[in-house]
Amino acid sequence: MPEVTATPAPAAQPGNLVDPYRAYNFKLLINNVTEGHFTEVGGLGIKVETISYREAGNNSVVRAIPGRVTYAPVTLRFGLTSSLELWEWLMTAVEGRVSRRNVSIVMLDSSGSAEALRWNLVNAWPQEWYGSPLDAMSRELAVETLVLAHDGIQRETSNVGAAA
């Protein structure tokens, strides 16, 4: 019986059209439990600082080498509900007892049902919270903001579209 190997999903190349993922198809997992009502996730980022290094020799070439790595805080925006779970998580940090949790931002495919890729935030904890503006003349949803600090980010790609 011939061995079956998985083929990678098509990649964007000249002549190979691949639709990008939609920014609104995502979900958030905290300790592998789906948390609902998130309207926006922002700030996913990594920065590698550069160190200038001058080589010895006649040319005195200055090279840029990688230095310290920092991870940007991630901002979550979500509709205000009666749930106290995120508030209580924040309060542990306020009281000086940081409760680190693994958080995953999961990008869904175009159908909105299957996982396409994910970003894992390692050892995340709430560092800032902003309440929703309250305006009696507005009909907008009340949206809170929670900012998470974390120790690192990992990206995983699902095998969606790969042959079995």
UniProtKB/TrEMBL annotation:
It comes from the Bacteria. GO terms for molecular function: structural molecule activity. Pfam families: Phage_T4_gp19 (PF06841). InterPro entries: CHP02241 (IPR011747), Phage_T4_Gp19 (IPR010667). This is Phage tail protein. It comes from Catellatospora methionotrophica.
